[in-house]
Design a protein that fits this description.
The complex is a heterodimer of chains A (224) and B (417). With 224 residues, chain A is an alpha/beta fold. Chain A has helices spanning 10-20, 33-42, 59-68, 84-92, 105-120, 152-163, 171-179, 190-205, and strands at 2-6, 26-30, 47-51, 53-54, 57-58, 74-79, 97-100, 126-129, 132-135, 140-143, 146-148, 168-170, 212-215, 219-222. In chain B, strands 6-8-9-11-10 form a five-stranded mixed beta sheet. In chain B, strands 1-4-3-2 form a four-stranded antiparallel beta sheet. The chains are: A alpha/beta (224), B alpha+beta (417).
Chain lengths: 224, 417
């Protein structure tokens, strides 16, 4: 599967590609409008990460081009403009999701994973990972076919971990994912710890392996 | 004191003093002239008597004339001097006291010396003086009243442009869309004042807009570097062989970047609110919104052992839904952040107001600086110092009134709409 990162800031583009590239994904980059337009019309991508402000043109024009060519690539807009208008406009123009800079790579990873899931497993809304099966429509988790009773936050947390499996996720990123960035409570991580502890206990009690590892109090890693 | 009142007071005082002085001088002058005339008459009478005595060598029979009395009295010494005097005596005709002007002189007739007294009634003169004074007084009084009235009306009209300008200035706000347009006037002083004010307010607005634009641009420009730092940190922690010390260092860097981006977001939000980018309003069901927020915060309160009590009524308010969300997030975050373990939060929603009360170890907050940006009471590291400014700004644009009260160690924020 190929992912295209259209972002003029080379450093950011580098970070995104190194984070996303793994055995599943091949990450391609476009640093300006022309290159982006060429790549988009030549190849098909599972997901396009699109910056709105590009040298040479607007990212929204690329969206229009995709639509014109009837391409089904998933599009995630990343924009420095934290404006609702941009968001609404981008989503109306056919983008699948919208993320505001600055974001955590883990958040980006989760959004990209969600877009790809929606695009490629049409109808079959399931994520399977070893003994874990997540039913995305029902928001239900089964381990060896037995349902596990998780709270909404625990379910979201598990999906977030699976979307970023084998990656270290910072506590800050987890907090932001669970609570949204409107909550001005940056230095309170106790409740995250509680959630993770409970999730881990529930998964292990239901017979799953111990996937979630704490990394020096800095973050967590879901290793498979 | 109003300008009119002060002006009128001075003018009134000056007019009354001048009026009194003028009346007194007038009285003295008229009296002096009129008495001079009576004296002249008396002198003519003297001359007539003296001529008669010279011709006939006898005293003339006193002819009774109205207002004039002549009497003779034999005297021993001859005085050549004429003596004028004003006396008051009884007038049998009018049956009242009257004042007389009296001339005394000596006359020699038949070898005998007589002292002649000619008295002329001053009644007519006094009447004249009184009427003149009365007419003068009435004229002056009327003039006084009329000039006061004219002054009042005229001043009001003359100062009209000044008050127009004043009212405009009162309403003038730096963050309003259009600049103040002062009325044109043909009075040079006011025109100059308006022109100066217009220039000053225009300059102030320009500076304000520039500053605002700067903040906005700075915040925008900061987003990309922040995104890069964050992404590099996210990548860095993927390294397999980080030591515990390194992890701690990274955690500190994370927290700092987090704070910076939060700060940045808050500044951008404030700029957007000021720019009226949240102008669209709809009816927001506060009951639903608050219940939703309580649900979201409940976990957090439980983890800190904060007890929650609520009294939620119906409330529909017209405001921007996005701002409503931010407002309640900030209010609830505020009540949580500054709370103490085992503390409490009370949320009361009625049709007219929302009251959020929380326990805290902080003393009463300084009302003066409460809503100013970056006014921090404690050195809480994760806190940007913009939360209350955002709450205040949202209340302002939504037309709500925000109050703070402190009672029995409880901090309350009340929003009235």
């Amino acid at each position: 599967m190929k992912v295209l990162v259209i972002e003029d800031e080379r450093e950011l583009s580098d970070s995104i590609c190194s984070y996303l590239a793994n055995e599943q994904f091949i990450c391609e980059r476009a640093l300006d409008f022309q290159t982006a337009l060429e790549k988009v019309s030549l190849y098909d991508y599972a997901c396009i990460i699109l910056d709105v402000n590009l040298p040479g043109g607007s990212g929204l024009e690329i969206l229009n081009e995709l639509k014109k060519e009837n391409k089904v690539d998933g599009v995630l807009i990343i924009s420095a403009r934290n404006s609702l208008d941009d968001k609404v406009f981008g989503l109306k123009a056919g983008a699948d999701d919208y993320l505001t800079k600055p974001f955590h790579l883990a958040e980006l990873g989760a959004r990209v994973a969600a877009i790809i899931r929606r695009k490629s497993f049409e109808g079959k809304n399931q994520v399977v990972l070893n003994e874990l099966t997540l039913n995305l429509a029902e928001k239900e988790v089964r381990i060896k076919n037995k349902p596990v009773d998780l709270t909404r936050k625990e379910y979201e947390l598990l999906l977030y971990f699976i979307s970023n499996k084998n990656k270290v996720i910072a506590k800050n990123a987890i907090a932001e994912h669970l609570w949204g960035d409107n909550m001005d409570l940056a230095d309170n991580y106790d409740f995250i710890y509680t959630h993770i502890k409970n999730l881990r206990k529930k998964l292990m009690q239901a017979g799953a392996a111990d996937y979630i590892k704490s990394i020096y109090g800095m973050g967590y890693k879901f290793s498979t | 004191m109003k300008l009119f009142a002060k002006y009128n007071r001075i003018i009134l005082l000056a007019t009354i003093i001048i009026f009194l002085l003028a009346s007194a001088t007038f009285y003295v002058a008229i009296r002096y002239i009129l008495i001079g005339q009576v004296d002249d008459d008396l002198k003519i009478e003297q001359r007539e008597i003296e001529t008669y005595v010279k011709e006939h060598n006898v005293l003339p029979e006193p002819i009774p004339v109205k207002d004039q009395k002549i009497s003779y009295a034999p005297t021993s010494e001859v005085s050549k001097e004429r003596k004028f005097k004003t006396i008051s005596g009884f007038d049998p005709e009018d049956n009242e006291k009257n004042s007389y002007r009296v001339l005394k002189f000596g006359v020699t007739a038949n070898g005998k010396v007589y002292s002649v007294t000619v008295a002329k009634s001053l009644q007519g003169t006094d009447d004249l003086i009184n009427s003149i004074l009365l007419i003068t007084s009435i004229t002056i009084l009327v003039m006084l009243v009329v000039s006061l009235a004219i002054n009042r009306i005229l001043l009001k009209r003359l100062w009209g442009p000044f008050y127009d300008t004043l009212n405009l200035l009162k309403k003038f706000k730096l963050d309003k869309k259009q600049s103040a347009n002062f009325p044109t006037t043909n009075i040079d002083e006011f025109a100059l004042m308006n022109e100066t004010l217009e220039r000053t307010t225009h300059q102030a607005r320009e500076d304000y807009l520039l500053l605002k634009e700067f903040t906005e641009n700075a915040s925008h420009e900061m987003q990309t570097p922040l995104a890069i730092i964050r992404s590099k940190l996210d990548l860095f922690i993927q390294s397999e062989n980080l030591s515990e010390d390194q992890s701690k260092t990274i955690q500190s860097a994370y927290t700092a970047v987090e704070k910076l981006s939060r700060l940045n977001q808050s500044l951008l939000l404030l700029a957007k609110i000021e720019n009226n980018q949240f102008a669209e309003t709809s009816l927001v069901n506060l009951e639903e919104k608050i219940e939703e927020k309580i649900k979201a915060f409940n976990e957090l309160w439980q983890s800190q052992n904060i007890s929650v009590s609520t009294s939620i009524g119906n409330a529909l308010v017209s405001m921007n839904p996005e701002l409503a969300d931010i407002l309640f997030n900030n209010l609830f975050s505020n009540a949580t952040r500054h709370n103490i373990p085992n503390g409490s939060v009370r949320i009361e929603l009625s049709t007219k107001q929302l009251k959020i009360t929380n326990t805290s170890d902080q003393k009463e907050l300084d009302r003066e600086r409460l809503f100013t940006r970056f006014s921090k009471t404690t050195g809480s590291t994760g806190y940007t110092g913009l939360g209350l400014s955002i709450i205040k700004q949202i209340c302002d644009v939504s037309g709500f009134i925000l109050n703070y009260s402190f009672e029995k160690q409880l901090h309350s924020f009340v929003i009235l709409w």
